[in-house]
Amino acid sequence: MRFMIKGHKWEIVTTAEDFYLPKAVCGYTDFNNRKLFILNNLHKFLYLQTLLHELIHAIGFEYNIPLLYGKKCNEKLVDKTALVIASFIFASLVSFSDDFALLLKFIKVMFKKYLFVEDTFVIFTYTSIIHSIIKKGAVYYDKRNTSNNKQSE
Ligand SMILES: [Zn+2]
What we know:
Blueprint: E1 2-5, E2 8-15, E3 27-30, E4 35-39, H1 44-62, H2 75-91, H3 93-96, H4 100-115, H5 120-136
Parallel strand pairs: 2-4
Antiparallel strand pairs: 1-2, 3-4
Bound molecules: zinc ion.
Zinc ion binds next to helix 1 and helix 2.
């Protein structure tokens, strides 16, 4: 799936392979090629959290917020922020499953509050992605040891 941030094309690559990913992570942001790699065998919640984590890096990169990407990145902040947003969404999955407009408003509030992002296009694209995850209905079995804190990079 492709989406735009500040006029730049990004791509989400869901991969079964660990090949593209550093060891023991569920996701990875390739800033040079503007790609987010996410493992596809993750539990729906972990998939969502990982996707949000990598998206925050991508937003940090495009908006030049050093706290959110690169060498000065605060990984803990990025991961906890992704966790908080994913938790809010996941706790309310049923209410949003057939109401795209409501989900859109919800994501808008979440992104403004936690990411200071009000980019309508990013919010719409992201709502579409999250909606498609909800619609899938499938809960992937997480084969990885999720007690490991190093979930994403
Ligand atoms: Zn990270």
